[in-house]
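To: structure desk
From: M.T.
Subject: fold request, one chain
Message: Could you run this one when you get a chance? Sequence is below, nothing fancy, just the single chain.
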Amino acid sequence: MPPAQSALPSSAAEDFEITEFPAEAPPAPGSSRSHAPANLPEPEPWPVMDKAAYHGLAGDFVGTVGPHTESDPAGLLIQFLVAFGNIVGNLPYYLVEADRHANLFTAVVGNSSRGRKGTSWGHVRAIARVADALWSDARNASGLSSGEGLINQVRDEKVEWDKKEECELIVDPGVADKRLMVIEAEFAGALSVMERHGNNLSPNIRNAWDGSILQTMTKNSPLKATGAHISIIGHITKDELRSRLTRTDIANGFANRFLFCVTKRSKFLAHDGNLDNVAMAKLGERFAAAVDFSRRVGRVKMTNEAASAWEKAYAYLSAERVGLLGAVTARAEAQVIRLALIFTLLDSKDAIDTDHLDAAMAVWVRTFHDNYEIVIRWP
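Reply: Done. Structure tokens follow.
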């Protein structure tokens, strides 16, 4: 096991050491494998997520699928974590002032329209379906456009008084399964509608991340949702994000509830990959076992070693940061705890250990880098 402080960042963001590697380019012209033109530009360096992030089942998933897809490994990993955090529901939690459940929001930001953002989700969903086909078929949704629409997907039972019968009658049974996995292939559209006057999508998304009661206060048809467990994966290009994400979204806390993960095509595969069906089936079985454990575990605690490491990490993560970058990373400690909770549950453990914190910190450091890339070059 690595030392408890191995994934802890230094006291200043400037000291982060981000490993870089060149993206895989097409073969040189004249080789036996390609007729690529000779004037291809040199690929830009690209950050690698620290290997500590690829812990346990999540790492095995990326290691199995990664060689057979053009999707960025970081995009595969973070969507896998978000999906698992949603499918387990709101029963497992870590207690700190307020409960921390396993629901996460992420925006997978393609370096371009060819970032292979969407293909990565297909692999994640295939694994998750082994554990819970109902969740895959009925609790995945898209089309974010209003707060009312979001609440409607997880609404409570509605009861009204019947004067004639002199009793309460159920007029709407509501939605029993409070899990909702929102997949927005065109996340720019959701950001766009949030700019409309009177649209209440943004505050309801913020409340959903917080685990607060979702409700509208309209007179004729009020909506309410308690115990909702909502996760969001949005796919968007870097240019779209810079164009649509406003300074208001950053200042009001909308942006810092998302983990932004910049991705691009990891390799060029002219033909379909050759995924091992047996290996994928085994991953599905392990995923299902971890889901079953997570639904029975309840409160997750922290080992003494992890608690000592967390004290050091917490001081850094909670430090005041100014400007747009500070605003977009303001919920760092809460994001890291949610990530650590998910890594713990994937190991079918009931206590966060140092390797789970290491993995969570590694993911967060990568998203910090990506936030820096997006915000520091804000138009």
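Reply (cont.): Residues 129 and 137 are 8 Å apart (CA to CA). Let me know if you need anything else for the meeting.
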